[in-house]
Design goal:
The chain is an alpha/beta fold and 257 residues long. Helices cover 34% and strands 17% of the residues. The longest helix has 14 residues, at 224-237.
Length: 257
């Protein structure tokens, strides 16, 4: 089981990465993380606090980095490994806490939170299927770099990041709509909203910590109050773990600001 994530050097995505990886590791998932080419000190620090993780670099123009980072997750199956192994997409600022996700590793295609996005999109948190199905759905025959380049490099605009912010979700839905197979949709929206049920959400941060599936972490985590919210949540979810590494990481990251 592998969680496929991505991160850029932006504090919103680099800073929370070790926390997301830790939560996936606790459920038995290894991680693949797509990152920009280069040696950004914030990402390099985050990497040191990520266990059981493979980092895959992509190259692109600076203006395309956010879109590359998002879309590359759709090509995690280019990574060599067991073709029956389940790959599930996630975010670098989204932590997971229950065997809800282990139950998605049954060989089928699962879309979690299908009611959380517009009708022409599927959410990237979370799509799960075996590696061989990922390869079929997205016709993966080349490297993740090549596939992502073919999609993103031709796009021009004044603000590629903003204009193409949901490209990954749109392309995921497009390819699954074209695929002749059963898609198992899981609905999580609270009635009348597009907010997920049983999620600790940064928009409000009101929840029952003993009855959550995941957590969309508050931002920026470089803010001590926001970091403490996550630290306290982790203490509840992992009562037997030594979490001093979180404080150490926070202090080291702050020095890079």
């Amino acid at each position: 089981m592998i969680a496929v994530l991505s991160a850029t050097e932006h504090d919103f995505y680099a800073m929370p990465l070790p926390f997301a990886v830790y939560s996936w590791n606790k459920l038995g998932f290894a991680c693949i993380v797509f990152i920009p080419n280069g040696g950004n000190p914030k990402i390099e620090l985050a990497k040191r606090y990520c266990n059981n993780t493979t980092f895959l670099k992509f190259r692109c123009e600076e203006k395309r980095i956010p879109t590359y980072s998002q879309v590359s997750r759709l090509f995690g199956a280019t990574y060599n490994g067991d073709h029956n192994l389940t790959l599930i997409t996630g975010d670098s600022d989204m932590c997971v806490f229950t065997d809800y996700f282990n139950n998605l590793c049954d060989g089928q295609i699962h879309i979690v939170g299908a009611d959380l996005t517009p009708k022409d999109q599927y959410p990237m948190c979370y799509c799960a299927m075996p590696a061989w199905r990922w390869r079929e759905v997205f016709n993966i025959t080349k490297s993740a770099q090549e596939h992502t380049s073919e999609l993103i490099d031709p796009i021009e605009g004044q603000n590629i990041r903003g204009e193409q912010w949901s490209y990954d979700q749109w392309y995921l839905k497009k390819k699954l709509d074209e695929y002749e197979g059963v898609i198992r949709l899981h609905y999580r929206a609270k009635p009348g909203t597009q907010f997920a049920d049983k999620r600790a959400d940064r928009d409000g941060w009101h929840f029952d910590p003993y009855n959550i599936i995941d957590a969309h972490l508050p931002r920026p985590l470089t803010n001590e109050n926001n970091f403490n919210k996550v630290y306290e949540l982790f203490k509840i979810k992992y009562p037997g773990d030594d979490l001093e590494w979180m404080k150490q990481y926070f202090n080291e990251y702050k020095k890079l600001l």
